[in-house]
Amino acid sequence: KIEHKSGSVTWKSPSNIAIVKYWGKHGNQMPNNPSLSFSLSKSCTETKVDFDVDPSRNGLELDFQFEGKAEKKFEAKIRNFLTKNSADFPYLNHLKLGIESSNTFPHSAGIASSASSMSALALCLVSIESRVFGGFSDKKQFRTRASHLARLASGSASRSVYGGLVCWGESESVADSSDYYAVPIADDIDPVFNTFQDAILIVDSAQKSVSSTAGHKMMVNHPYAEMRYFVARSHVEALKGIMQEGDVKGFGKILENEALALHGLMMNSDPSFILMKPNTLKIIELIREIREEEEMPWYFTLDAGPNVHLMYPLEAANKAEKLIKDVLLPYTQDNTVIYDHVGKGPEQIKK
Ligand code: DP6
Description:
Bound molecules: ligand DP6
Strand content: 15-25%
Largest sheet: 8 strands, mixed
Distance between the termini: 29 Å
Mean pLDDT: 95
Number of helices: 8
Helix content: 25-40%
Low-confidence stretches: none
Structural class: alpha+beta
Shape: globular
């Protein structure tokens, strides 16, 4: 029996950068291959949810505000996610939600992320669930549930529920891995990887990346789909050993291969997309040149957009930041770089 309950919960949750990419799904948000990512530290969404569960209410009431302004498009997306998965929310018809969300990264940078916003929302929903139905027995159960709900809203968001290195999708090499939710594996790897920095070089902030819906659709009937899923699975398996050994070079090789594979798949899908800009390639070329000439342990990856994520261990950070300023910055838009790093995962804000 559901009793009348109301209150407020707030979570701050990070974006993540994929090492092995999730690109292609089936059924209700099931991945076609396992993926790996690092959760970031500074690029976060903070979401506050005021809730009122009243058994006499009949029909979901929802209000969504982003940075102080009503956002009807995103509100509709959340409503759709909730009603589509109503089996997961048995109290949905009695629920009134007032959601306020804001990002800690600049609007203009073009790195808006469904991973941070949807994971923050999912964590709030599980907090509400535990208040309505009684708590979860432990933190692991709570996070597993949050990751499951985050996945239903946006696949990559399932990984943002944890800090450090995270795996989503079944892989032989990752214990307890699942297609339904992500699992944290930061404790299983050499600590050097938990110090990794991510300098996000903004090449074009206006450039719209391919929407994830359009992107995943491209993989249906893609001529290289099956081989892509096979390679992604192999990459997850190989990375486990590579990261346990602290093999930064081996890690970097797969990181770059994954980014170029993602963009390769987009370039030869139908319709075809080229999201890299001339300066994306210029920066990639310079990263590789400097790596050879200066023995810099730095490697790039890309999302479904033109911006370059440049990754290196903390011990190389001073030199990297100087080289970024001197050599790479001229190829960014308005000298924009966001210095982020591997983070500890979401945090509940008690007010
Ligand atoms: C290129 O998680 O945004 O960033 O499940 O449709 O919301 P939906 O897709 P989404 O796709 C992310 C694609 C990617 C790779 C990755 O993060 O693994």
